[in-house]
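fyi for ur records
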Amino acid sequence: MAESQDGKPRAVEVDNYEEETRLTVGGIVRYLVTRVPTLVPPMNKAPNPIKALALLNKQQWLFFLVAFAGWTWDAFDFFTVSLTVSELAEYFGKTNTDITWGITLVLMLRSIGAIIFGIASDKWGRKWPFIVNNILFIALELGTGFCQTYKQFLACRALFGIAMGGLYGNAAATALEDCPEAARGIVSGMLQQGYAFGYLLATAFARGLVDTTPHGWRPLFWFGACPPVLIILFRLCLPETEAFKSRKALRDTSDAHTDVATTFVSEGKVALKRHWMMLVYMVLLMTGFNFMSHGSQDLYPTLLKNQFNFSADAITVTQVIANLGAMAGGTLCGWASQIFGRRFSIIVISIVGGALLYPYTYVTSHKVMAAAFFEQFCVQGAWGVIPIHLMELSPGPVRTFAVGTAYQLGNLVSSASSTIQSTIGERFPLPPAEDETGRFDYGKVICIFMGCVFGYTILVTLLGPEKLGQQFDAEHDDDLAVVAARRAEESDPEKALAVQHN
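which gave:
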């Protein structure tokens, strides 16, 4: 987590990696003292968004598009259950709370998928783990659509959680590893908004497919299994990223007597030993961010229906408007982080989001749609910085594993956010409307809950590091230099000394 006096990243000396990971009182104090000075925006010169996107060549655009498509459909598949809770509960003869366990299982088991597919992506490449992920999406969405019992439903969603957890880190690496440095911010913001776009598509298709045929809720899941076929064909036509190919070439030539698996394990051990504090920090950061998204979104349709008495059409329109705000915010703030820095951008937009909580949760008329637009602009604006921020913070040899696992462990911690809000909301009953019971003041709960979440996220971001402009290729990776030095030392001490000096 080393930074220079001006807040810009500096290279870590190859032979000082043990010192860099040693915790001392003096080191901690020196680090904390730099947190506010390094927050000053670097005011980097960045091209306008259109010129920034023009920096991408054809292959880089294709990498972004396939990653965006995969992340979008990951989100679509997740929200198929969120948008059909009532229909699923009625079919299986369960309560809405029983069905939400399907959502909770997905969030809880994502971490397993992130670990499995993250390690696979860092070892064997981004391409084939991505394809396997999407094959599983097809099988498990179809499986959910054909479920006949509640236990079958839970089993499918549990397996789906593992598959879903493996995609985020891979998508981030595919889209951003080869991306020109000046375009990283805006590409990061656009990539992250695949989540909002998937939510928007799920909302629209749910209105068109659920309960409009004799098959009830099933057509939404059957449809969800179709686009991954096209995404798989798209990825099959593309090679590995240049950044991964440079790492693979270095592994292949580093030692003729060492297999790739052994080399990968050696790299991983060095990366984890040197950067374990960074990995813990990334999980803490992603805990706040996942609470931010789930806390502001998951129970909001219930608030609109239960507390504000919105019709189904009004709820759909509000959700669509909110997600349009999310896509705009993520793209703009991701681009702005290239100029103002990652931490500064996250903190400022989180402060604005906190200020908008009152209208977001207390305006009971249709004017709340404007508040929903700008609140999600802020929430997903902060999120737009995250893909590239995590990529820059992550150790190179285990980058996909680190990004995906940090994200999904944060999801695991925040998986009960809607249950927490719902349970607390029941302590604030409202007078029932005509022919209605069980109304609760969810607005108050979401407002207070999100205020705490924004405060936590601002504090963790303030205390954290930043590596704006970090290079992703093997040539600039200190961990690989340490591995090479150790291997050279084992075979030839004089050669090791030369490697370290180089």
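Confidence is low (pLDDT under 50) at residues 1-21. thats all i got for now
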